[in-house]
Amino acid sequence: MMKIVFATGNKDKLREVREILSGLSCEVISMKEAGVDGDIEENGTTFSENSMIKAKSVAELLKGKNPELAAESIVMADDSGLEIDYLNGEPGIYSARYMGHDTSYTEKNNNLIGRLEGVPDEKRSARFVCAISAVFPNGEAFGTVGKMEGRIGYEISGSNGFGYDPIFFLPEYGKTSAELSEAEKNAISHRGKALREMAALLKEKL
């Protein structure tokens, strides 16, 4: 069976990926499960560039570490983040590093709410963006991008999501991304859209 090595150590993200890609006849494993580790410098200027840098880097590491596994694995990586229009697209590609890697998301979310204090609904527009890249054993590579539009809420609300989900308000649902069920979120999320498009591409190639 073909394997998908997904370049993340985030258990929540891996659970989402496995759920959305469950229709493929592939086993999804983490970098750790593949025996790969190492710091990868994401020095791209877009989500797509960073996800491809990550996927290609992990594919090379896997070849060096476990050539046998590399020969039967598609390496996938994502780069995702939050773009707030009023803040000129911040935190954008620096979403994970915003205010420092060791800063809690509660602090990050409160900081962003504070920076938007007094800003009316119509100017609080924002989106989650997710770029997914895949690298095949033969070096073939391609990517997809998904987006979820919403706005920044006035308070932290919900515990079902992670990251910036508790401040990302979805007007059509009347709740934040962190207040959606996992099934609801996967149906409309940026990662869900990018992964479903990727799954369709993979089905054509596998």
Task: List the main descriptive attributes of the protein structure presented here.
206 residues; alpha+beta; Maf protein; 8-stranded mixed beta sheet
How would you portray this structure in words?
The chain has one domain: Maf protein (Alpha-Beta Complex), CATH 3.90.950.10. The chain contains six helices and eight strands. The chain has helices at about 10-20, 45-65, 65-70, 105-115, 180-190, 190-205; strands spanning about 5, 25-30, 75-85, 90, 125-135, 140-150, 170, 175. Strand 5 and strand 6 form a beta hairpin. It is globular and about 55 Å long. The mean pLDDT is about 95.
What CATH architecture would you give?
A: Alpha-Beta Complex
Query: In percent terms, what proportion of residues is strand?
Result: 15-25%
- Radius of gyration (Å): 17 Å
Shape, per Cα inertia axes: globular
Number of strands: 8
Q: Give the total of domains.
A: 1
CATH class: Alpha Beta
Number of helices: 6
Order of helices and strands: EHEHHEEHEEEEHH
Helix content: 25-40%
Structural class comes to: alpha+beta
Q: Looking at CATH, which topology would you report?
A: Maf protein
Distance between the termini: 11 Å
The major sheet is characterized as: 8 strands, mixed
Low-confidence stretches: none
Could you tell me the mean pLDDT? 93
